[in-house]
Design goal:
single chain; 267 residues; alpha/beta; TIM Barrel; eight-stranded mixed barrel; two-stranded antiparallel ribbon; 11 strands; globular
Length: 267
Amino acid sequence: MLHYQPKVTLRTGKIASVEALLRWNDAENGLMQPTTFLPILESAGLMAAVGAWVLRQAAADCRHWRSLGSSPIRVAVNVSPPELRRRNFVREILQSIGDLAGDSGWGVDIEITEGALFGDSSSCVHALRLLRAAGMRVAIDDFGTGFSSLGRLSELPIDTLKIDRMFTSRLPGDRKSCTLVTTIIGLAHAFDMTTVAEGVENQAQLDYLIREGCDESQGYLHSRPLPRGELERLLGFSGSAAALGGALHGNAAFASEAAPRARRSAV
């Protein structure tokens, strides 16, 4: 099953996109986290099939929301390096998103890790260029943990850098993390990219990110990952863009309760 975690635009306080996160509801153990079941899927050789299902389901949900007449919401899907390197990947992903391709508001985007671009990645870069040409946006997930070549970064077909929660969690008290986050934000903007801070759990972190010009924020301060029905209620799909009431002013009780769970269930 899929859960969706909102990304809040810090300039407006509104939700413009969500990240699709895979969950497994086990009959005996209840909701299982990816750290538990992804190794099982990988060892069974099912990652490609599951990834294709996630993409189809995310696209189907996006179409459903569009049919409700709400303001546009984009959905980001994580793509693993093996998926990206598959010969027919671009054709399969464009078939899955169908009429969402090229829609400037609604749409499905992808998130990749820095590792996907290591080594001989010319085929991956070519695939990303084709997807961007079709209107999809591309983000590098957990940026800052994979030793990317900064010189090469400017040449890659990337729209967004996602700041890893390892750095966000240390804001604003850790000087080195502050320097890294500020540098990533400045670097992204210099390359005409946007930034998303992951794992935001408290108001102090959010205040720092706003002050430094980060574009979007994602984390338990705003919302945990939600099943589709709960997300729809949060968004209030009635034709207007959703704003997280109080999200930019903090919710200390919720953040305090959510922080430990965020660390346990982070993807």
